[in-house]
Amino acid sequence: MKSTQLLIRTGLIGAILAITEPALATQAHSAPEGLYAHQLAHIFFIISMGVLTYWLRERKLVQAVGWRHIQYSALFFILWNVDAFFVHLVEEQLALIDIQRVGLWEINITSTANSPVLLWLYYAAKLDHLLCVPALLFLFFGLRRLLKDAETQTTRTVPP
Questions:
Q1: Three-class SS of residue 139?
Q2: Which of the 8 DSSP states describes residue 61?
Q3: Which residues make Cβ contacts (< 8 Å) with residue 39, sequence separation at least 6?
Q4: Residue 99: beta bridge partners?
């Protein structure tokens, strides 16, 4: 690549990054219908992953490594959805948690029920990426293994 093209591309990327707005890591739901639909989606996802796990085990597909990884993914997705449901419930529906921005990198989390246990549970539950990332990784590894197994099966059945 020519140095002029590199300079132009670097300048464009820098300009795009300079004019962007901060992307907040939370999603607001319009009250109350948006939150109800969102909570129902979490319940539907939990049930769907439960049914997937059941059928994977019932049909004994989990004996294959790829399907076993997908089963683990479904289990982590169930945990992630239960966690997210809990966070939405205590923060937005029951209003047991109050969050106030103190500064650019600082917030104040208080419990309207004056419960330090609830505060710690809420804080731990907000670390939902510790459940979602493994779910996505197990899904990726499971699908990759199934693809590899399918390619191996195809090469075995094709005569030389």
A1: helix
A2: G
A3: 85, 88, 89, 93
A4: 109
Residue 100 and residue 95: Cα distance in Å, rounded?
13
Q: Which two tokens stand for residue 28?
A: 């607001």
Percent share of the chain, pLDDT over 70: 90
Note whether 77 and 49 are within 8 A (CB): yes
pLDDT tens track for 59-117? 999 999 999 999 999 999 999 999 999 999 998 888 899 989 998 889 888 998 888 99
Across-strand partners of 103? 106
Answer whether 125's CB lies under 8 Å from 83's CB: yes
Say how far apart CA 118 and CA 101 lie, in whole Å: 19
pTM of the model: 0.76
Q: Tell me how far apart the alpha carbons of residues 113 and 92 are, in angstroms, rounded to a whole number.
A: 14
User: Which is more confident, 17 or 157?
Assistant: 17
In this prediction, residue 46 carries a pLDDT of 98
CA distance 58 to 113: 44
CA 25 to chain centre: 12
Is residue 75 within 8 Å of 46, Cβ to Cβ? no
